[in-house]
Amino acid sequence: MRNSNPKEVPSYKALREEQAKLRDLCGIQSIQYKSQQGDIYYLNDIANIMKKNFENPEIAPHIMYYPEDTDGAPRSEFTQFARLREKPEQLTPSFQKDNKHFYVNELASLSNGCLVIPLIWVTVKGKVHAYCRMVNLGSNGLVVDEADVRVPASELDLNFPEILAEIGSLDFTEESTSYAASMPNKYHELDQDEDHIVIWMPVWADDVSGARSKQYQKHVNVYMCNGSLPGKLVQQEYHVNFVGSSQQVSATEMLGQATHANPVRCYNAATGSFCRFRIQVPYLPADNPQQSEECSHIGHNGSFPCQICHVGGTYAETETNEGYEAFYNVGQPRSSTETRDAIFKQICLASRGVATHVDALKTKSGTADKTAQYWIDILLKKSSELRQKNPQQSVDDISIELLLWLVTQTKQPYNPLLDNELFHIQDIVSENRFNLVKALGELGAVLWITEIDDLDQYLEDLVILIANVLDAWALIDPAKILRKIKLHLLVHLPEHIRRFGPSVRFSTEVFECFNAVFRMCSVLSNHQAPSRDIAMKNGELGRLKHIISGGHWVRNGHIEHAGNSVIAVLQSTPIIQRHLGWVPPRQLKPGMVQCPGRDKRTTLVGTNTQAFTGSTFHPGITPSSSWILGTHVISQSEDICPIGSWVIVRYEDNHFIAQVVEILHPAAADAHSVKFVTVQKFTLSQVLHHYYQMPVLHEPEEQYTVVESTNIQFIINVQHDCRAAKCCATGSHRQRQERTESGREIACIEHVPLKRYIINTHTLHNAARLVKWHNEIATELCISQATKRAQSKAQAAATRLKNKEKNQAGPQAGSAPVRPGTDESRSRKRQHVQISEESNGYNDNDSMDIS
């Protein structure tokens, strides 16, 4: 900088002063805390972080306020699943209409004059509704009907204060007095006529190394995200927020400090007005050891290794048939009350001075808590000291004295908080291990979906796939079922999906990716105050993200935001987008064709294209027309499909599988020009592959098919059947080093020209679309077979009627009569039976197993 002699560059001191001003104006505050053990650490203010979400125009419009009723439509978001219905008091309590706020558990009237009590608010196809209970006027007062009725919120007319002002007092009957006790809602006064919104905030914690080298420098980190956002946003690093880090304090201690009692007031960029919000934690995503700590669980090496249920026992118990089978099922669930009682019993036993009794109780209950263990060690030591100091004092007196001392010390009650692997290993593992990989591949493809059409059917299939995985493991090493707790935790997965949604929604990869940001902040710290330095640096990154995203802040009662030039930095600079983990909305239009640059384009006349010689000639491709060869086409699922890719094509109300051969873009094109794709259609085998148990594709004899680019539905993963073709490493290619050919040749697999392929149903990408397409094809096949059978049945009935008429007409002239019981009569009856059996319209050639 000095050598370039720039002008108007601020001094280092002026830069720090300006940063401090921005921190006070629109930054995230780092707050110092002290743990019960006396350790000092820093946390970024979670309420301040969530305020930035509401003040950010890139985030606020996407926040989902209420649970959603899908009414049979596919489910994908957290708000569409059961967790939000478990505790209605945790949900958003109010709804605004015509500058009036309606609260749950308060009396309201509809536009038709009926009285209702809203219980929860939900959205249905983007419109807010309320589950209400109707209120009728009886002879002794107001009577509440216990049946729930869903009412559009647009029909609400008068809220509780207006009804109270009009009537004066509300008299409920004796059986309905419990409803009157909750009126008015406790948030009515706190909100001061502003929106009240509940934000769901998953909190992730884990131990992470603060060094980039192999030396492990343990830090316990806590991150969080806004779980009220759509899943496609939650999985972006941009929406991960740093909370705190410490080398001494556990995650449960840090989480215990990050609480608030009253709703937080902030500006809502989506509505242009102020609102208030509360934070609820729906779940704590983490790896298994960290979840055990958060659940006050003894760990997965204990006798009861599951933090969710009570499965387990001694070695002798788990090795029995009943004990072993228990790991295949969901056991008796643990509860917070039970865990709290077990910890309190451990503390009471510790006050009596016998460590072995405490350890025995931990083993028996499977409960152990880090924070409680700190006080248990102190109580054991103090109990021994008191016995030595005063041998005459009884154990009960010592226990009471220590428990009273513990209450004064803690100051508050304790509150506990695989895609293509199958094709790579086929010849190098045993049959049992290969079957295990197949079972894992089938399970992975079902788990890695973002949208569920039929939840009950999906969970039924999932239970079967999980059982297949456990059975496959048991064939290899039965003891793994007992020792590997991850296998048992699979059994709990269906219930978790029922409560929280698709498993990818509560995956931890996005938090683990954020560790790179933390590690860079750790490396730049001098480690004199690492918790403070890392928290402040992440706060500065959050402030930068807020400013260049167009975030708002309040100064002197006025709403402000950065200028357009500053906001344009994020929108127009890809390197900034990558650094912040922000993914701009994809500008992909289904059916769009991408062409090479002008210097690399290949232009063909219609007669020179492969489409012109296709078996299904398209009238849009004339001999004199001019076309540019495209590089890829965008499918309806917004997949990029280059030449050679395998796709599902919809053509003339039929679906088929094909390989992209040619992509054509008109040379003189306008916005409405039709683009074409030449594909080679493949036929689906009637049976699954005998080894992989996957659908098989064969090349037909017919030529290419020409379809419009908008007919490409989605891309699929197809592999060559190297096992049947006996493909070996007979080929070679030159290795490139430093962007040049080195002259060194490397052996590679050379495919034998056998046009036989396998649909990889274990692939994660588009797995849900492939299953849905399969179901549609299977349904069409069932309908067509049913139609054939009905036609054959009608034809057989007509034949029998015709034969019956012949028999009634008597024998023809010149023919001998057929007497009952003769061989000829029996032969005719057998013939009728054979006709009936052969005419049922079903044979092996008509069946198609593509499951």
UniProtKB/TrEMBL annotation:
<feature type="compositionally biased region" description="Polar residues">
    <location>
        <begin position="833"/>
        <end position="851"/>
    </location>
</feature>
<feature type="region of interest" description="Disordered">
    <location>
        <begin position="794"/>
        <end position="851"/>
    </location>
</feature>
<protein>
    <submittedName>
        <fullName>Uncharacterized protein</fullName>
    </submittedName>
</protein>
